[in-house]
Amino acid sequence: MVQVCIDKLIPGKEPTKYTKSGTSADVMRSAASARMALIREKMWDVGATIRVRFMEGQLDVQQKVKKYALSWMEYANVNLVFVPKGDAEIRIGFKMGDGSWSYIGRDALDIPKNQPTMNYGWLKSNTPDDEYSRVVIHEFGHALGAIHEHQNPAGNIPWDKEAVYKYYMGPPNNWSKKDVDHNLFARYSKTITNFTKFDSKSIMLYPIPAEFTTNHVAIGARNTTPSQLDKKFMSEQYPRIKT
Q1: CB distance 92 to 61 below 8 Å
Q2: Which carries the bigger pLDDT value, residue 28 or residue 98?
Q3: Using CA atoms, how far apart are residues 204 and 202, in angstroms rounded to an integer?
């Protein structure tokens, strides 16, 4: 089964510009020098303290989520602080059956304080550590402003759209055609993102099986850790302040 998370967007605040043409003009320039892609206006301030609180969940599951979430601080100049109660910019739920998802970057600030801004819908006590690493680092990438790598303006993936529609419009996803278009085919515009070349090793890429492409070549793998280019990109987007 292909398990992917979905973009959580706030109605009325969706990015207004997507690129679908795939022409060279759509992928030429970038403000960044490594691969990966972030939405500029949704990034936190460099050096920001971002509070994180669990709204539910078993202690051992919480501890594993915290472990992998904090790994982003090795590369990005942000301070993720887990708090036991009170206000928190990122609030984590564990609603089974609701999938794994996160609002992108500062969009979390617009979510009512009694609601989660991130969810893990299949993590349990017996879930393997590599799956924790894959899912948690991915969702916290979203929380820092990163988008899915397949929606990078430079992606240009040769989707077999009919095969993708058939898969995702059936169980267990039961997406509409519009859901598939939004979550998989639409690419963010270069005018609102920092990006460069597509990175098949990015933690923000879910594997694309061969049956989903017109050339029948799989793209990416089950990436469980940030790629070297992910690390470089985050360190450039959230740089250490030199004194």
Answers
A1: no
A2: 98
A3: 5
d(CA 111, CA 10): 8
What is the phi/psi pair of residue 210, to 5°? -60, -30
**Model confidence at 75: pLDDT above 60:** yes
Which range has highest mean pLDDT (17-31, 39-53, 140-154, 183-197)?
Answer: 39-53
Does residue 7 register a pLDDT over 80? no
Which long-range CB contacts under 8 A does 109-112 form with residues at least 24 apart? Answer: 110/10, 110/13, 111/10
Which of helix, strand or coil describes residue 118?
A: strand
Whole-structure pTM value: 0.81
The residue type of 217 is: V
Q: Which domain holds residue 111?
A: 44-144
Domain end point (choices 144, 162, 195): 144
- Given 144, 168, 198, the domain boundary residue is 144
Per the document, the length of the chain is 243
